[in-house]
Write a structure and sequence with these properties.
The chain is of the alpha+beta class. The protein folds into 4 domains: 98 residues, Sulfite Reductase Hemoprotein, domain 2 (Alpha-Beta Complex); 103 residues, 2-Layer Sandwich (Sulfite Reductase Hemoprotein, domain 1), CATH 3.30.413.10; 53 residues, no CATH class; 188 residues, 2-Layer Sandwich (Sulfite Reductase Hemoprotein, domain 1), CATH 3.30.413. The protein has 15 helices and 22 strands. A 5-stranded antiparallel β-sheet has the order 1-2-5-4-15. Strands 3-16-17-14-13 form a 5-stranded antiparallel β-sheet. Strands 6, 8, 9, 10 and 11 form a 5-stranded mixed β-sheet that branches. A hairpin with an 8-residue loop joins β9 and β10.
């Protein structure tokens, strides 16, 4: 394979493997890092950007979200000693931000001196492996997955063949619970609880990512077979994943190139036995409960973080309480903290925010992010989001770390000058059927300035309320997703323009464009509609949301659509 056609990261790997680079780690000068250094350091959980070259972030693996109270307290002490910022990731891990160059090695050494590790938490690796926060402890727990996760982590951690050497990162989710609060279909691989005849095991789904749902591979595995399948998959992806265009190296693109059957053949060659067809998926959508009774008669409490953000005093308080109660601490992929093993349904503190159904990226702690839910909650109707348990994903940029297309309402922070002076706003998505991996959310608006965002999200929720469906996903399935994407955008714009909240009628079968246009005109007779729905959405949104003065993108010499 010619080095010239490999992507830049692969060229570095071809010259020096990350595991060999690590041999020089102790002598590394963090004040004089080159581009290659920054690539390699990601494999050991250290990263920075071109924008903040002297300010670092460390990511810590927390397999299955389980952390001892001692380690939790130790991290709190490190955060306090070095005045760091800490967030819980959407993969149940920990990120330490605002680390200065003089402290990076010392902090990294202190973390890895515990039973925690930062290895392979970033870069082209198997990332932190996630499961349901209630793994093994509720009545709906059929298979405890943590022992399997430990096997997986031990296999890849510090394995010279795989450290930083995969074609791209791989995210893995596994759940042996029949009820899950969070969806795992955004993972490259999801092992979902299933039943074949009378045996509980796992159906395999592959090819998910932040903008795609994992596909059914039609494979059933008994729990004893999962680890062997995982090893076979890892080797198959190592051997056959693309190492060329960096934008096409995720597992999704390998499946797109060779098909699911082609991928299965590669895995089967390493697995060395035939696959069994999928069983009956045992998956039901759960609801958030602040307190939950466990199958041993004790209780769990969910501490809702400030949209993933913590401080050292909070951590020390929670660690002390868990130690006193002989309780266990776990992180959920909803970025909340689960305290398991309480004798009563009460705790001597309250959560700092209502974030039970919210997933947020690191926000302005990341230089790529345009906005941060942690600071900009004024732009959102959090009371309505909480009231209806609506799942919301916030991504500060298009990288999508907030899984915005796997939620009921998804938002991406952006900047634009389409509405006057350059200003921040959000792209809006709605209607993902995420719990069962049926579909991702569709774009509602390409850009809503922040000053109008609360009005838009409030309207979305108000229309859902009027629908009388008990769940937003049901509303999406029975109504929203049976209309064309642009028509749904126009319907919301017509409501905004008229300052009304008129519900879309239920729609079991898709309508023609003419039928949709007649429905809109009959309901909103003063709303002007062009022949091209998409162009009308663009023009109407600019008319509604231009912040100051005329639309700077409007050129009078270009004819506007032929309105009715």
């Amino acid at each position: 394979m010619s080095e010239e056609i490999l992507n830049k990261r692969e060229r570095y790997k071809a010259r020096l493997k990350p595991i060999d680079y690590y041999k020089e780690f102790e002598s590394l000068d963090f004040e004089s890092l080159g581009e290659g250094d920054r690539f390699y350091l990601q494999d050991f959980g250290i990263f920075t950007t071109d924008f903040l070259e002297d300010e670092f972030t460390i990511r810590i693996r927390i397999p299955g979200g389980r952390i001892t109270t001692e380690n939790f307290q130790k991290v709190a002490e490190i955060v306090k000693e070095y005045d760091l910022t800490i967030v819980l990731t959407a993969r149940g891990g920990i990120q330490l931000h605002d680390i200065y160059v003089d402290d990076i090695r010392e902090i990294w050494d202190k973390i890895n001196a515990t039973t925690l590790t930062t290895w392979q938490s970033f870069g082209d690796n198997i990332r932190n492996i996630v499961t349901d926060a209630y793994d093994g402890v509720i009545n709906e727990s059929e298979i405890e997955c943590y022992p399997i996760i430990q096997q997986m982590q031990e296999f890849i951690l510090e394995n010279p063949r795989y450290v930083g050497m995969l074609p791209r990162r791989v995210s893995i989710g596994i759940s042996g619970n029949s009820v899950n609060v969070s969806s795992f279909f955004a993972n490259d691989i999801y092992f979902a609880l299933a039943k074949k005849d009378t045996t509980f095991g796992f159906n395999v789904y592959m090819g998910g990512k932040n903008t795609e749902v994992a596909q059914d591979a039609n494979i059933f595995l008994e729990k004893e077979e999962v680890f062997e399948f995982f090893k076979a998959f890892t080797e198959a992806f190592y051997l056959h994943g693309s190492r060329f265009s960096r934008s096409k190296t995720r597992l999704f693109y390998l499946i797109e190139d060779i098909g699911m059957d082609g991928l299965k053949e590669h895995i089967k060659k390493e697995y060395k036995k035939d696959f069994v067809s999928a069983g009956q998926l045992e998956l039901h959508k759960g609801e958030f409960q602040e307190f939950r009774e466990l199958k041993d008669g004790k209780f769990a409490f969910v501490y809702q973080t400030n949209f993933s953000k913590l401080d050292a005093d909070e951590m020390s308080m929670l660690a002390s309480f868990a130690t006193k109660e002989n309780a266990e601490i776990r992180f959920g992929i909803d970025q909340n903290i689960y305290i398991l093993g309480l004798n009563t349904k009460e705790v001597p503190f309250s959560s700092p925010s209502q974030s039970s159904t919210v997933v947020a990226c690191a926000g302005n702690l990341c230089p790529f992010a345009v906005w941060s839910i942690k600071e900009d909650t004024k732009y959102l109707p959090l009371d309505l989001i909480q009231k209806h348990s609506i799942f919301v994903g916030f991504s500060g940029c298009v990288k999508g770390c907030g899984r915005h297309r796997h939620t009921d309402i998804g938002l991406i922070g952006l900047k634009t000058n389409h509405f006057g002076d350059t200003d921040a706003g959000s792209r809006v998505f709605i209607g993902a059927e995420h719990s069962y991996g049926q579909s991702i959310g569709r774009e509602l608006f390409s850009m809503v300035p922040f000053v109008h965002l609360k009005e838009v999200v409030t309207l979305i929720i108000n229309l859902y309320e009027l629908s009388a469906y008990s769940d937003f996903e049901e509303y999406a399935r029975e109504s929203l997703n049976n209309y064309s994407q642009d028509f749904v955008s126009l319907w919301h714009l017509a409501n905004l323009e008229a300052k009304r909240s008129i519900l879309l009628p239920p729609c079991k079968e898709p309508l023609s464009i003419t039928e949709e246009k007649n429905l809109l005109m009959g309901t909103f007779p003063s709303f002007q509609i062009g022949e091209d729905f998409k162009q009308t959405v663009s023009i109407k949104s600019k008319e509604l949301w231009t912040i100051e003065g005329a639309d700077p993108m409007y050129k009078p010499k270009i004819a506007r659509p032929n309105f009715r």
